[in-house]
Please model this.
Amino acid sequence: MPIGWLQLSHSKGRMFAAIAGVAFANVLVFVQLGILGALSGTINFSYNPLSADILVSSSNANTLTDGVPLSRRWLWKVLAVPGVSAASPLYLGKVDWLLPNEKTASLTVYGLPIEATAFSGSLLSDKLKAIAIPGTALLDRRTRGLDTQTIDALFGSKNATIELSGTKINIVGDFELGGGFSADGALIVSDQTFLTLFPNRSSGTPSHLLVNLVDGTQVATMVNKLMDIFSNEPLKIRSMAKAQAEDLAYQTTQRPIGVIFGMGVFIGILVGLVIVYQVLSTDVADHLREYATFKAIGYRHSFFLGIVFEEAIILAILGFIPGLSISLLIYEVMSTATGLPVAMDISRASLVFIGTIAACTLSGAFATRRLKSADPAELF
Model:
């Protein structure tokens, strides 16, 4: 049997306490990463209804849903640039919907001209034509708070209507996006219907401009060209992929929710380090005389380091298994209760497992510092 295992199993109570500590730290890290992953997922999902090469926004737009509206005159100026094949205004807003069960769901409303089919993402496919008649909309089937009875009533009838801001909207189709941290679902409407829902908005001030390029035109080259042309204007011109990446980075590193859960991951790692260090340092202290004896007869420090590393790795493995199992249950409960895309994947599980091994090994290395400096003659 490995000496590390014999050392650990000699005091079963302390070993089980250490395993529980590692499992707790794993659960803490997994939950924080799960919520961060859900935040990232919902940010990425919010771009799924759209498709474009370049996104033109106001200079203070850090995410898809913030920033002041643009003047529509930029649409015509962008269209005049050689290499641009098409451009479309995109209107975004939020509206509350009183559900039949008396709960309120917040919907992100996407408004696109019905002729802008080239700018609808794969999520919508050819459904944009269905909302050509003013007062019609596509509703997110996965809107948080919708029960089965309401879903059947809405999507099983051709004349289902809902009331938003005092306006009756005819639901003519559906899509699946899901709720996020800022809204419970989404609604796709034409630009005309959007202006009916938001009478304070003007057709001359869209939220963003979607731009497509002539086939063969490099997106990066055109972005630089547009930035040079409009260098003195309050515009932010980025490829769609970069806009999405910057949105994700901003919300996960500068918005409070992203910072809080990022700190939670750090706290989880710190808790795991402290628990394992405490267990291993106590074990080293309890066996200091035995280690000193080995040291006196010529065993090198690497021998003792190997024993402690064995213990650290055993604790990491035995603590990771229940930590992962409990986290999977928590993910299921969180996903069901909130509708957020909280899910475990192989890369996250592998990352946490490797991190657990590394943290336990690091704790073990710290725990042997006293043994390294100990003089065997002083221990007897």
Summary: The chain has twelve helices and nine strands. Strands lie at 54-58, 84-98, 104-112, 136-140, 161-164, 167-175, 185-190, 208-213, 235-239.
